[in-house]
Design goal:
The complex is a heterodimer of chains A (144) and B (147).
Chain A: E1 2-3, H1 10-31, H2 37-45, H3 52-71, H4 84-100, H5 105-115, H6 118-142
Helix pairs in contact in A: 2-3, 5-6
Chain B: H1 2-24, H2 29-36, E1 41-42, H3 45-64, H4 86-102, H5 106-114, H6 118-146
Helix pairs in contact in B: 5-6
Classes of the chains: A mainly alpha (144), B mainly alpha (147).
Chain lengths: 144, 147
Amino acid sequence: MLIDVIHFTPGMSLAGGLVIGIAAALLVLCNGRIAGISGIIGGLLSWPRNDIGWRIAFLTGLLGAPVAASVLGRPTHVDIEAGWGAILAAGFLVGIGTRYASGCTSGHGVCGLSRGSVRSLAATATFMLAGIVTVFVERHLIGG
Amino acid sequence: MTALMTRLAALLAGLLFGIGLMVSGMATPAKVLSFLDLAGRWDPSLAFVMAGAIAVGSMAFFVANRRNSSLLGAPMQLPAGTAITSRLIFGSAVFGIGWGLAGFCPGPALIALGAGYPKAVGFVAAMIAGMVIFELAERAKATMQRA
């Protein structure tokens, strides 16, 4: 296995992870809610609507982070390799998949694993494996 | 009062979550794809994000599991389900394929949206369309079960 030492950022990634953990801790300890992004968005689309106030507040904060960074003169650079077709197909699959799975990287991956949930471990193992296989097919079988 | 306080807490949690995603490098699809590309030049950074988040999260959930209400008096609403269903595995697999295609999961996509990337707008619109189709399918199923 080849480790990409140039792009590897253990320090910043660990620091960012700690901040994500603090955010999840704040939401569960103050609001009694799971910081799962797909679930928070999904709750705005389901009917009958239930307590949308905290969902909108959370999403406002999340979207506000890059906006605040731009205002402060530190625009967020995001490197998107995928073309438009892949982007739209991927978005659709992520939307429908996370709702059937009742969670995504944050809800199952961060919060579920923090709770010691075996169900979330099964979900996380499945989407990681599916992601790894997809990238392998795309980059090494098709892309060559 | 509680409603206002919980909304402020949620706003702060969302802001911190976003800062964490940006600092960690998770908001960049290229970095996420390098993590998933075990056969290429592997960037293990994402594992450090998970480790950091779970280190703090596990302490918080240890406390949360032993309480019936939050510090602000809101009911503790933790998932009750423990069953590993075909629905869970199917959904996770579909999500994983989408994640591998673009390198975006829901949180980072919202960060890129806030940063003003047109492709993030497209991704989030398609994601919401997928979620709406899920809702319509669920409602159709419920109607059929009632009939």
